[in-house]
Write a structure and sequence with these properties.
This protein has 19 helices and 28 strands. The chain is an alpha+beta fold and 616 residues long. It has 4 domains: 96 residues, Anticodon-binding domain (Rossmann fold, 3-Layer(aba) Sandwich), CATH 3.40.50; 174 residues, Threonyl-trna Synthetase, Chain A, domain 2 (Threonyl-tRNA Synthetase, Chain A, domain 2, 2-Layer Sandwich), CATH 3.30.980.10; 222 residues, BirA Bifunctional Protein, domain 2 (2-Layer Sandwich); 34 residues, no CATH class. The protein binds zinc ion (ZN) (2 copies). The site of one zinc ion has 6 residues, from helix 2.
């Protein structure tokens, strides 16, 4: 006899849990110059291609819109942009993008060379006399005040380099470019967005045209397909369509309310996290949302993290801050009484809600939000325990990520910044080695980010690849040589002497909200059965079957399943379509035969319909 529907759904839940007038080529090389052969399908090749395409876009815009001012046009991940200002506050529209793209194709066809020239700042200022943004860049570079934005455009140094495509069109740039415009690959202009000059909210608002370019049509098409798929899966859109959560404007930017269906998924995620941590030897703590300023003075956050904190509140002659991190409070828990080496490793765990000030322009649904909950752990251990602790920590993290349906991972190991760090070189070396050894032992592919660690310790970041090939940085395992010092954390060792513990920060989801957003996009809203807000919907074929449908619901609910019923007042086909739109994993249809035999028809999401499945 076939397995009952209740046991199938329960099994699905269990399974989920387990588991100078010359082209660049003619350039005279100085002694010691680096020469690299760059092919179009490499990262560097795409960078050169995209940046060259940005020049062509600027040329097209200046031809089509006389008087247009242009500022900077770098290559970015997946494409390029250029910032413009049109006369009389004119803005670009969709049709403009089409005509700019058409003109760019003509320029590509004309196969104009990219001709490099070097000149003095005063000659460059004369050349760009009608381009105030270019003049500003030249002045900053020539006065030695250039910052990274400028030098990306133009390089640092005495002479200014420019590239000429036509007698009329010349641009400030340090290169390199493709040899000529005929060597561009296929490109597409994507959108226009406002962008402040130099990212300064008090500076003029320019118009940024984004484009993308690839080495061949297949690569471009694949990218455009991925973008369309990403748009279809956008968690902000799905959250509304599936009634999961919302961002009411009365609440303020970057703050969400969770509706019952979203809250159900979130609770399942959190319950799963709690179960795994309980089984993994973690101890649960709770800490408040506010703390006196003295705590953040002790932790140092008011020195190095103030910009990321909410403004202070004054009360009782004291100053309080919403907490941006849970770590200082977990240090207080450790310090709450004398600690013995026998208690170590001490693994504290909290679903701790933190508040961080993110600039309004950077907020993005659940991915960048101002109040969020970290699945936050702090582990205190002895130096001798650290390497084993990290190896088992990595196993734990990976096992939980896999249970949520991720299977493709990479990691980054960030190492010491020689210019800015606390802690001894010996401690850093041992820590970095422990992290590296854990990655090797687990067999996780990783890159070393030399000098990229925060000043207080090296770390591992784990990136997951989602269903459409995007990577998301989720989990972090981070050493901290700073907080144990600042909080004077100590334990009594086997030798009866006092020792300072090693402290590890570990976030697994990162934030519950962002992880939920990533999952929502990864699954395109079709959560696996164990985390779906509703696992099944029962549909009686006709009114005569409603009574039996209610019995089916009551039975499945008694087995702990999330099930509802929609009565027969609408046509069956319409109700089935509506259940599919709600992305419910199972639609259970009951008719005459089912009432007679205590069975049901099982219509699984994306699977074949099976009739006559026994209820019990
Ligand atoms: Zn350039
Ligand atoms: Zn922490």
């Amino acid at each position: 006899m076939a397995a009952s529907i209740g046991s199938r759904l329960a099994k699905a839940a269990v399974a989920a849990v387990i588991d100078g007038e010359q082209s660049d080529l003619g350039l005279t090389l100085h002694d010691g110059a680096h020469v690299a052969i760059i092919t179009a399908d490499s990262d560097e090749g795409r960078h050169v291609l995209r940046h060259s395409t940005a020049h062509v876009m600027a040329q097209a815009v200046t031809q089509l819109f006389p008087g247009a001012k242009f500022s900077i046009g770098p290559a970015i991940e997946d494409g390029f942009y250029y910032d413009f200002e049109l006369p009389d506050g004119r803005t670009f529209n969709e049709a403009d993008l089409e005509s700019i793209e058409a003109r760019m194709r003509e320029i590509a066809k004309a196969d104009q060379p990219f001709v490099r020239a070097e000149m003095s700042a005063s000659d460059a200022l004369a050349l760009f006399a009608d381009q105030p943004y270019k003049c500003e860049i030249i002045e900053r570079v020539s006065s030695g005040a250039a910052d990274n934005d400028d030098s990306a455009e133009i390089g640092r140094g005495e002479t200014i380099t420019v590239y000429r495509n036509t007698p009329e069109f010349v641009d400030l740039c340090r290169g390199p470019h493709v040899p000529s415009t005929g060597r561009l690959g296929p490109f597409k202009l994507m959108k226009v967005a406002g962008a402040y000059w130099r990212g300064n909210e008090k500076a003029p608002m320019l118009q940024r045209i984004y484009g993308t370019a690839f080495e061949n049509k297949a690569a471009l098409d694949e990218h455009l397909h991925r973008l369309a798929e990403a748009e279809r899966r956008d968690h902000r859109k799905l959250a509304v369509e599936l009634d999961l959560l919302s961002f009411p404007h009365e609440l303020g930017a970057g703050l969400a309310v969770w509706h019952p269906k979203g809250a159900t998924v979130r609770k399942l995620m959190e319950d799963y996290s709690r179960d795994r941590h309980a089984n993994g030897g973690y101890q649960f703590v709770f800490t408040p949302h506010l703390a006196n300023a003295t705590l953040f003075q002790t932790s140092g956050h008011l020195d190095f993290y103030k910009d990321g904190m909410y403004p202070p509140m004054e009360m009782d002659n004291g100053t309080y801050y919403p907490k941006p991190m849970n770590c200082p409070m977990h240090c207080l828990v450790f310090r709450g009484r004398q600690r013995s080496y026998r208690e170590l490793p001490l693994r504290l765990y909290e679903l701790g809600t933190v508040y961080r000030y993110e600039r309004a322009g950077t907020l993005h649904g659940l991915m960048r939000i101002r109040g969020f909950t970290q699945d936050d752990s702090h582990i205190f251990c002895t130096e001798d325990q650290a390497a084993d602790e990290i190896a088992s920590l990595l196993d734990f993290v990976m096992s939980v990520l896999r249970a949520f349906g991720f299977h493709d991972f990479t990691a980054n190991l960030s190492t010491k910044d020689p210019a800015k760090h606390v802690g001894s070189d010996q401690a850093w070396d041992a820590a970095t080695e422990a992290l590296r050894a854990a990655l090797e032992k687990y067999g996780l592919p990783y890159k070393i980010k030399e000098g990229d660690a925060a000043f207080y310790g090296p770390k591992i970041d784990i990136d997951v690849r989602d269903a459409i090939g995007r990577t998301w940085q989720l989990s972090t395992i981070q050493y901290d040589f700073n907080l144990p010092e600042r909080f004077e954390l100590e334990y009594v060792g086997a030798d009866n002497a006092r020792h300072r513990p090693i402290m590890l920060h570990r976030a697994l989801f990162g934030s519950v909200e962002r992880f939920f957003g990533v999952l929502l996009e990864h699954y395109a809203g079709a959560f696996p059965s164990w985390m779906a807000p509703l696992q099944a919907r029962v549909l009686p074929v006709a009114a005569a079957h409603e009574e039996y449908a209610k019995q089916v619901v009551a039975h499945l609910r008694s087995e702990g399943l999330r099930v509802d019923v929609v009565d027969a007042s609408d046509q069956l086909g319409k109700r089935i379509r509506s259940a599919k739109l709600d992305k419910i994993p199972y639609v259970l249809v009951v008719g005459d035969d089912d009432v007679a035999a205590t069975t049901l028809g099982v219509n699984p999401r994306g699977g074949e319909v099976e009739r006559g499945v026994p209820l019990h």
